[in-house]
Amino acid sequence: MSKRPIGEIRQTRRELLQKTAAFGALAFGVELAGVRSVAAAPAAQALPRNQTLNIGGFQWGPPTTFNPINASPTWPATGSPQLIYQSLFGFDLVDGTLKPMLGKDLATPDANTMVVTMQDGAKWQDGQPVTVDDVVYTYTLPQRVQGLNYSTLFDYITKVEAPDAKTVKLTLNAEKLNPGMVRNYLSSIYILPKHIWEAREKDPKGITNVVDMKPVGSGPYKVQAASPERVALQRDDTYWGSTAIGKPAPQYIVHPIFKSNDDGNLALQRGEVDWSQQFVPQIWKMWEDQKLPVGTWLDKEPYYVPGSIPLLFINVQKKPLDNPKVRQALAYAINYPQIAATAMSRYSAPANASLIIPTGGESKFFEADKVKASGWTYDPDKAKSILETDLKATKKNGVYTLPDGTKIGPFKAQCPYGWTDWMTALQLV
């Protein structure tokens, strides 16, 4: 293979990312690009390697349905980037702004109103035009169908309507005014073609359970093949957004389905994956020790743009976790700096008592003074004080017991198997 400077390769892959992210609004957030000229993975041999972008980290099981309102849709009918289905806007993780997708412009004439101007010439992949009726149909679906992943939309809006053929008007709920949540929905609800999905509401199994292996979206890619080994997409060269949004560079996108992070990381090292969204421990060793042409979005620590916060969900229906003081003690007992330094390979700042990410596009909303005044940090002595002083718990054989005899543990914590960073974090907890 030809040797190229890491910086040059990083720039090349960043240019590819920017071309590809034009239709995903940079929603990947990070880039791990292995670009060695070696044989492709067996699953992708039928496609020309120099026209194929192999990616990993989004799909962790065999494809079952590309129904975007299913509880567990197959990638890319969920999340980002928006390859098949598109929302009105895309969310840019780098600067926190909304970027045009099916919507061209967003106006807020007053505090209770948002008006979306639609793109010109948008079409579904079957050639039918994308209309405001499609948007209204999709946004009002929670009023007719229970259990959608955006069922809470009408907590924040009271009405969605189309004043004319080019605009969609949303009236916000004045009693629960939260324009940030509405913007979230504008960038996350995939618009459905009404002429296809309206009939599916009559399916006896329910619209959310419709098995759709040949989805018709408005995005730049179509499903070429789907198997337990991979999902393969082919670029739609008649894509309406080639001018308005941008034409993606790869002719094909293939997502091999790995069983664990370790399998995917090995494929990255071999050059069988070009772009990995999954966790790679100590990524810097790939170029410092192994001299591999691998790059990240940032050239130095923390290497990645933060995108979300993994959360520890606690079963508050179970004693003694129903006691806020027990949960408070747990909060003080977890070594967040250790998790960030080891389980997360220093890619992340230690967790804070906030749902706002303290760096990146959200940093302007992070209120450090309030986090310090009212939040929690790693403080074992504080945890012990809560248990022994506030709760009057006694310790025997390493386990605390409340005065009523309820033992504080042991507890079971779990995460998806093969997600090595989360597994390590739970071991540390």
Structure overview:
Mean pLDDT is 88; it is low at 1-44. The strands form five sheets. The chain has a five-stranded mixed sheet, with helices on one face. A four-stranded antiparallel sheet has the order 5-6-8-7. A three-stranded antiparallel sheet has the order 14-15-16, with no helix packed on it. The longest helix has 16 residues, at 6-21. The protein is α+β, with helices and mostly antiparallel strands and 429 residues long. It is built from twelve helices and 16 strands.
What secondary-structure arrangement, pairings included, does this model have?
Layout lengths: L5 H16 L10 E3 L17 E5 L32 E3 L6 E3 L2 E8 L2 E6 L13 H9 L12 H4 E8 L2 E6 L6 H8 L7 H7 L20 E7 L2 E6 L16 E5 L4 H9 L5 E2 L8 H4 L5 E3 L27 H10 L2 H8 L24 H7 L5 H11 L3 E3 L2 E3 L5 E2 L11 H9 L1
Parallel strand pairs: 2-11, 2-12
Antiparallel strand pairs: 1-13, 3-4, 5-6, 6-8, 7-8, 9-10, 10-11, 14-15, 15-16
- Tell me the Rg in angstroms: 24 Å
The topology string of helices and strands comes to HEEEEEEHHEEHHEEEHEHEHHHHEEEH
What helical percentage do the residues reach?
A: 10-25%
**What is the number of helices?**
12
Q: What summary fits the major beta sheet? A: 5 strands, mixed
Mean pLDDT: 88
Strand order of the largest sheet: 9-10-11-2-12
Number of strands: 16
**pLDDT below 50 for ≥5 consecutive residues: which ranges?**
1-44
Question: Tell me, what's the shape?
Answer: globular
Spatial gap, N to C terminus? 44 Å
Strand content: 15-25%
Provide the structure class.
alpha+beta
